[in-house]
Sequence to fold (321 residues):
Amino acid sequence: MRHHRAVIVGALLAVQACAHSQPYEQSYLRASDNWVFRREYSRTDRLFNAFDYGHAILSETLLRHPDGAAARLEGRERAFIVSQLLRDPPRVPLDEQAIAPAYAQLVPEAIATFDWAHALHRQLYDIIGDQVLTTDARARRVQQALSYYRSRRDLALSATPKSMALMEGQEYSLAFRRMAPRYNQLIWSYHWLQMGIYDALLRSDDYGARHVAVDATVARFFDMLADSSKVPSAMPMSAAIAPLFSARYPEAAIIFDNLHALHDVVSDILSSPTIPQSGKRAAILTALGRYRDSTSFVTSRAEWAEMARSMGLEQMGGAIP
Fold:
């Protein structure tokens, strides 16, 4: 596993080298709750750093090794992530461009879009995890974070639900899950945990109860990885996995569903034999545009919630503990 250690070390060095620079053109929204989640729930916060590696190495492998991608991902990459990286995740966020340089050169717009949405994820964990905020103050802070996120119109994903046809009805759709089903389920398990943590935090305002709920959700995540019958067989949707969060903050929940669907779409485009290497950038840029706009492939919030119910909670990994 020396190769993987070298990749992680290189990414960490890249982060340290840029310690005094802004990782985004528009940086984290400053507030009193910044980094609360990292301080209070450090183990879970570190897992999210490992998730970034899993996404980055996936895209890089699909792009650089199209003929051998399935064997690499289903073999050594998944084994390394499950048995080593998730057990001892990085302490700082990784530089995706250090892990996936070819992918970063092909579609820097995709990396910027994902980074901006992941920053919103972390901002909301901070807000919801802050014990000082009242329910009303928390709601105001969430709206501030969402307004700040929307201010980057070139990067922000739509808060309008998208129909499943955008993810599963295109010429390239399902290519990745057919090529590497176990790695695909690993990615879906990431999304299950990312949404489940919100509801673990929202179930109680008691400090101890929150920590118990977060720890139980993380334990369920590892139990899921250890038993192939428990991993998601359908993309986890926010309304099913995080019903409290989705009811309280539907705009954020829809953004994150669009984010997770877009991850699948990019993987499908990179995997698809129907799209030549020369056409992959254009296809990804088209997908980015569709997930940013609020006019194409749209559905209603009621249909979005019904879609989550009809897909089945157990198929998405089940409820959080």
Observations:
- Residues 177 and 184 are 5 Å apart (CA to CA).
